[in-house]
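Researcher: Sequence recovery benchmark, item below. Answer with residues only.
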């Protein structure tokens, strides 16, 4: 059967095709634009007051262009829908001789002839008026053709096989494209459009996507950066060397952050300011990195230390780059360096990286007094407050009476004092309410058993002390369960996962005026072996601590029987001086100290002799005896 291709003359088929393709593009794009990725924690709009802010970014034309394209797409969809609805579709009708003669399928030849004669008398041109002669001629031709098809054997066979009495015909296939696209005068433009789309635009965007996807890790960190971190990080590394390694990231060599000769004068002036402040207040002279000597590394190092020492940058563009460097560095610490350190179970290195996270968020140098986080407390007056009033931390300040607080902060004005006290009240004071090490179902910890660590922490000064413990279900508090109540502990652990999903809460925003972005207050829980200095389990990030929280971890007990000492540490990722630590002991005992398992009473009675079960048991016994006899004889042989 030959095929004949025809193009869409009316345009309705093309309308259906264009409407389908356009909907597949516009609908997902609209959903992504409305409900797509939101701003990250650092990029969200902060609600706390800020000393340092980033310049508002120039409005890009890209979002407006995307919005315009989406609106144009929806306008085309409505237009095509209207066209589809209003355009008449001509459906192809199959030629049916039985329908023409007005008889049923499979009628005998006599019935066919009788129907033919009857219709011939009705539609013969000589039997109708002049105004009906043309229609009668057409009808008579169809009647004759139908009669011949049903009475001639060859014509009837062709009709039954091919649907046409004349035999195989050309098959017409429609293409959902308007004929205009293939006409001679438009074909050059169509070919040029195809070449532009498939030869340039599509390869360009696919290549750019592939290039970007191969440059980054899954956490959106450049591959060269992770390679540099992995090769240079060590278990026993100083905090200063960690900061230098952080500034060696390839992100700081990108176009918007890299060193420019025009920055040289401003950077030199900034270095002098940092050196003066560091020598006076930090007892540590700021100097250039020794291992990483690139200009980009040096610039990032300067901007980070200006942030740590709260040195003001007069150059507006450089100040904006500094905040971008700080935000990028925080991401690199959380998702890069800390990930590598915890993978190696390095407790000391991981702790130092958590300290760097606090320094980045608060804009302080290592080992600074926590009091410097309060508004009005500066590098200049903090040493005097400590020297005269012996005041070092926020928690120490909050334990004083109102009069004692005012005397301790007498260097501040009344307005500064009120602001400092208000902020000090919001800085969380963490407490470890309960720590429990247990093997679920047992009363002792044995070698190589699976140990469950249950830790309950609370914010002592949380504004809301009420924590939901389930939906209408009374759930036991781990503080009320004794160490010996194994059944209650087992039920608590079993229900923990479900209860944890029901009690997810949004953490408060951290007060960090020197960090330009928004930062929610989060915590790390670390559990390390005191003797080896290794992490027992990777640190758990607590991202929803509002008033109190329970963390459940599992690890394998050591194979030796002895008493082990562990460090349980909970560190803030946003505040300095808020960390808590507790020593936990675990005694591993021999399995023989566990109570013996209760004997299982077998209440199954013997089957009766005449039952099928008894006959089967007797047969199995005979077969087993025969096999034993064969084995004995073979052994004797």
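Model:
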């Amino acid at each position: 059967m030959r095929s004949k291709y025809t193009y869409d003359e009316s345009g309705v088929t093309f309308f259906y095709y264009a409407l389908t393709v356009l909907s597949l593009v516009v609908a997902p794009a609209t959903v992504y634009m409305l409900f797509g990725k939101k701003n990250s924690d650092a990029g969200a709009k902060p609600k706390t007051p800020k000393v340092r802010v980033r310049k508002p970014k120039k409005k890009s034309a890209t979002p407006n262009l995307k919005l315009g394209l989406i609106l144009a797409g929806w306008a085309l969809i409505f237009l095509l829908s209207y066209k589809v609805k209003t355009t008449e579709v001509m459906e192809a009708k199959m030629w049916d001789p039985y329908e023409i003669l007005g008889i049923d399928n499979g009628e005998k030849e006599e019935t066919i002839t009788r129907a033919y004669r009857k219709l011939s008398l009705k539609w013969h041109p000589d039997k109708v008026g002049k105004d009906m002669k043309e229609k009668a001629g057409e009808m008579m031709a169809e009647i004759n053709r139908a009669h011949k098809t049903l009475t001639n054997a060859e014509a009837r066979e062709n009709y039954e096989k091919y649907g046409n009495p004349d035999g195989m015909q050309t098959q017409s296939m429609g293409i959902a494209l308007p004929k205009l696209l293939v006409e001679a005068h438009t074909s050059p433009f169509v070919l040029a459009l195809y070449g532009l789309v498939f030869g340039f635009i599509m390869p360009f965007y696919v290549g750019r996507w592939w290039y970007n996807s191969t440059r980054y890790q899954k956490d959106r960190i450049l591959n060269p950066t992770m390679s540099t971190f992995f090769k240079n990080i060590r278990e026993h590394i100083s905090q200063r060397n960690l900061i230098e390694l952080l500034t060696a990231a390839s992100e700081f060599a990108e176009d918007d952050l890299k060193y420019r000769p025009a920055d040289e004068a401003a950077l030199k002036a900034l270095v002098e300011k940092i050196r003066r402040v560091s020598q006076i207040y930090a007892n540590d002279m700021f100097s250039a990195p020794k291992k990483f000597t690139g200009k980009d590394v040096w610039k990032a190092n300067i901007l980070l230390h200006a942030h740590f020492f709260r040195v003001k940058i007069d150059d507006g563009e450089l100040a904006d780059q500094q905040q971008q460097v700080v935000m990028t560095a925080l991401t690199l610490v959380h998702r890069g360096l800390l990930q590598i350190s915890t993978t190696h179970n390095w407790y000391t290195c991981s702790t130092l990286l958590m300290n760097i996270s606090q320094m980045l968020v608060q804009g302080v140098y290592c080992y600074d007094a926590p009091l410097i986080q309060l508004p009005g407390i500066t590098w200049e007056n903090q040493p005097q407050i400590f020297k005269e009033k012996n005041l070092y931390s926020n928690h120490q300040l909050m334990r004083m009476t109102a009069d004692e607080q005012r005397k301790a902060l007498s260097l501040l004005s009344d307005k500064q004092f009120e602001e400092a006290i208000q902020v000090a009240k919001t800085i969380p004071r963490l407490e470890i309410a309960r720590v429990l090490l247990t093997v679920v179902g047992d009363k002792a910890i044995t070698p190589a058993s699976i140990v469950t660590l249950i830790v309950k922490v609370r914010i002592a000064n949380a504004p809301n002390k009420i924590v939901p413990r389930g939906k209408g279900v009374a759930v036991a508090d781990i503080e009320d369960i004794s160490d010996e109540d194994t059944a209650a502990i087992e039920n608590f652990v079993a229900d923990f996962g479900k209860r944890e999903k029901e009690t997810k809460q949004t953490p408060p925003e951290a007060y960090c005026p020197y960090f330009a972005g928004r930062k929610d207050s989060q915590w790390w829980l670390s559990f390390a072996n005191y003797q080896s200095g290794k992490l027992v389990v990777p640190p758990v990030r607590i991202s929803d601590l509002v008033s109190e929280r329970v963390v459940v971890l599992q690890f394998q007990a050591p194979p030796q029987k002895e008493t082990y000492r562990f460090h349980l540490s909970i560190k803030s990722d946003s505040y300095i001086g808020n960390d808590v630590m507790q020593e936990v002991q675990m005694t591993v005992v021999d399995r023989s100290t566990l109570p013996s398992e209760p004997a299982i009473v077998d209440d199954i009675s013997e089957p009766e002799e005449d039952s099928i079960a008894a006959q089967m048991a007797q047969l199995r016994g005979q077969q087993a005896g025969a096999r034993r006899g064969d084995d004995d004889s073979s052994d004797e042989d």
